[in-house]
Specification:
The protein has 308 residues and is of the alpha/beta class. The chain is built from 13 helices and seven strands. S-adenosylmethionine binds next to helix 2 and helix 5.
């Protein structure tokens, strides 16, 4: 990614999304610790059932918007939520990796480039539409939701998970910035530099990516307003749930720290600490804090609804 490309994408969120996610595609699964085994199958299924419940499976034909490398739908299919699927994304780099992942898993899926605001599918061609961490990148969310309802069969369901809430995102961003600022300075200290500091070229690349991130992340959501947008688009039986409070206060600095230091500097012990810490705090959030803390303060919002 060059400075000129970043400048060209500055006023064009869709171009920025293509550029940023094409650039991220090859390393995306590693960066986000995405796998297609029990760990992520459970994670994807739990996100789905948390908001949409466990009834009505398996769906025959599912569509994913902004699939990235296929994390959500491929793992939902492995969990038995859908029999066949179509992975779509605006980034051709992501679509290529998603198609490869689907083939490697031997699932009944195809993958193609598609903009969520104008889907290249006939009316009523799916009985499930899903997405994970995609709505906040789409300029006109209500238009995309109208497209979702158009391509769903009557009675079909949509599930979008992993969208940032306004309050959750505010806290997470500040924690991440503080972590980045601290880590990139401390690792320049001579005794630490060789083992921990990222190469200058890699740091410059990360800064360009961070500049684009500010363009691709278009929205944060208030759960009630997101539900209202779904209903305006024509959905019924709309429901939202939020999740991750302390888990996001821990998870964002951890991921930012991983991105700020030399690749490979943090070993297996760190990976275990990060994973176990996140699991423990997620359990704390789910079991206790979700009963007493207002839902809009949590980091993630998930929404589901049905086509009448
Ligand atoms: C944060 S990534 C999430 C990827 C994947 N769903 C996951 O959870 O790992 C967001 C994805 O949405 C895609 N995207 C952004 N804008 C889009 C649009 N208008 N239509 C379709 N996909 C879009 C990006 O290219 C990117 O792959």
């Amino acid at each position: 990614m060059t400075d000129d490309q970043v400048a060209a994408a500055w006023d064009d969120p869709k171009l920025a999304n293509v550029l940023y996610h094409d650039w991220e595609a090859a390393t995306y699964d590693d960066k986000w610790h995405i796998s297609y085994d029990e760990r992520c199958i459970d994670y994807a299924r739990d996100r789905f059932t948390h908001v949409a419940g466990g009834d009505g499976w398996p769906y025959d034909r599912a569509l994913e918007l902004g699939s990235g490398t296929g994390f959500f739908l491929l793992n939902l299919m492995q969990a038995g939520v859908a029999r066949s699927g179509v992975l779509t994304d605006i980034s051709s780099g992501m679509v290529e990796v998603a198609a490869r992942n689907g083939r490697a898993l031997g699932l009944d899926v195809t993958a193609e480039v598609a903009d969520a605001e104008s889907l290249p599918f006939a009316d009523a061609s799916f009985d499930l539409v899903v997405g994970h961490a995609v709505l906040h990148h789409i300029p006109d969310v209500e238009r995309a939701l109208r497209e979702v309802l158009r391509v769903l069969q009557p009675g079909g369901r949509f599930v979008f998970a992993g969208e940032p809430t306004r309050h959750g995102d505010y806290v997470a961003r500040r924690l991440s910035r503080l972590t980045w600022w601290t880590a990139t300075r401390v690792t320049q200290w001579a005794p630490l530099r060789e083992r921990w500091a990222k190469a200058p070229a890699a740091l410059a690349e990360s800064s360009r990516a961070a500049a684009l991130e500010a363009v691709v992340d278009l929205h944060t959501f208030d759960p009630d307003r997101l539900a209202a947008t779904c209903m305006r688009a024509g959905a019924i039986d709309v429901r939202t749930v939020t999740e991750e409070l302390t888990a996001s206060w821990f998870g964002w600095p951890v991921r930012t720290f991983e991105a700020a230091v030399k690749p490979g500097a943090l070993g297996w012990g760190w990976a275990m600490f990060a994973y176990r810490g996140w699991m423990t705090l997620t359990a704390l959030d789910e079991r206790y804090l979700s009963r007493v803390v207002p839902d809009e303060l949590f980091y993630n919002v998930c929404v589901t609804g049905v086509k009448a």
